Amino acid sequence: MRRLFFIITLPLISVIGLNAQKLLTLDDCTKMALGEDTQLQKDIELQTAATYTRKAAFANFFPKLSANGAYMWNEKNVVLLPNSLQTSLGTFNASQQSFTPSNPDFFHKLFPELSKDVEDAIGKIYDDFRDKLTFDVHNVFVGQVGLTQPIYVGGKLLYSYRLSQSAEKISQLKASGNKENLVVKVNDTYWLVVSLQEKVKLAEQYRNLIDTLLQHVEAAVEEGVATKSDILKVKVKLNESEMAKDAIENSLIIAKMTLCQLCGLPLNSKITLDSSNLDKYAVSESSLDIDSSMVKNRSEIKILTEAEKMARTTAKLSSAGLKPNIVAAANYVASSPNVLDGFNANFMGGFNVGVVVNIPIAHVDAIYAYKAAKHAANVAKLDLDNATKTLTVQATQTAQLVEESNRNLKQAQLNMENAEENLRLAEESFKEGMATVTDVMIAQTGWQTAFNRKIDAAITLRSNEVLLQKQLGKLSVE
């Protein structure tokens, strides 16, 4: 009954343990990483900002409508006539309401009996007239609605818009480049975890081989065909295999934590990676010749191309400072008091339309700025050419590494087959008494080494293939 219980429950425990482990493929990890990476989220914000900057530059082609309002308090009113006014007829004084003729004798002869009354009357009239020309400006209100339209500004608007277009494209290319880098990083980390998973399995198999060998040696000692020294040799090897297995398992834990961090998963997530494609590899073109045209799709080259275009456009923008500017404007201005009806306190206004033309004559600084921008554009072109050559060499080296990795993997597979056959023969010879314990352990070590090299060769090929795709601008990040 007890035995039956274990027969039933053991498979269930195994199924529960497998379900607890989350099986992930490379595509799963890549999608999660692309959705969780903070840098990519920043790139989206930067792209959005660049798009709005481009739209703002495009909006400069259209008229701008604005409204302004102002209020001002003045301590004193506006008086158009002075308190004392001197003329050829005489002097008027408003505060004294008096008039002093410049020729009193003539004035007295003209008005012999009423001269004083006439002078006072004229002074009072002047005071009244001065009051009429005194306007209340203690509280001044002004409103204005205006429309401005650039007609020709030397190409500033066009070149500014082209610069914003290039800046938007560069932000998109940088985002694409960051995605590619993340995909490569996830790929390398994924296959590192896969390789460690396989090496853990290999370490368990290797330990089982040594454990089986230990049982055979112990049986051989009982039969008198082996010595206790042989048992000690095997036990030492068994302990070494246990230590090696522990070290690999620790490395696997750290590698899984790194992958979980990239994918946005909790660091202690129980994950298992799909390693079914580890033994499947694609043979690269052995005659692949890399030239500069094959790296033109790289985000780095596209960014430098746009940077050179921006430098040329900046030079043209600098030259705009040497060209005439023509701007048209239309306004409606209203104020209280207003000057259109004798400083009437009511709001009153009117339209005005005008054109402003500015023609640069002696702007030496603009000339030098234009020349400096032209030389900066030449530097950008040199940077592009140099980067194209460097990245072409880099891609050529990686293509050679892919070819070498293919050859290494083929050779590792062949070595693995030979090591398996050698181990089988050594074990059979030991059972027949034709080989020593040392011979079997040497064969086991050779088998483990060949298996390790096969795993490393497959992982190296995976990494080099993805790196080559990135360097040729063919890596899909969608």
Polypeptide structure, described:
- With 478 residues, the chain is α+β, with helices and mostly antiparallel strands.
- Helix content is 64%, strand content 14%.
- The chain is rod-shaped and about 170 Å long.
- The model is unreliable at 1-19 and 281-287 (pLDDT under 50).
Keywords:
478 residues, alpha+beta, four-stranded antiparallel beta sheet, three-stranded antiparallel beta sheet, 11 strands
What's a concise summary of this model?
The protein has 478 residues and is of the alpha+beta class. It has 10 helices and 11 strands.
Largest sheet: 4 strands, antiparallel
Give the end-to-end Cα distance, rounded to a whole number of Å. Answer: 57 Å
How do the SSEs run, as a string of H and E?
A: HEHHEEEEEHHEEHHEHEEHH
General form: rod-shaped
**Proportion of helical residues:** 55-70%
Low-confidence stretches: 1-19, 281-287
* Broad structural category: alpha+beta
Q: Mean of residue pLDDT?
A: 86
**Number of strand segments:** 11
Major beta sheet, strand line-up: 2-8-10-11
Q: Hey, roughly how much beta strand do the residues contain?
A: 5-15%
Kindly provide the radius of gyration, computed on alpha-carbon positions and rounded to a whole number of angstroms: 47 Å
What is the topology?
Elements: H1 2-20, E1 22-24, H2 26-36, H3 38-59, E2 64-73, E3 78-79, E4 84-86, E5 90-93, E6 98-101, H4 104-110, H5 115-132, E7 134-135, E8 139-152, H6 156-223, H7 228-263, E9 271-273, H8 299-319, E10 325-336, E11 348-358, H9 364-431, H10 437-471
Parallel strand pairs: 1-9
Antiparallel strand pairs: 2-8, 3-7, 4-5, 5-6, 8-10, 10-11
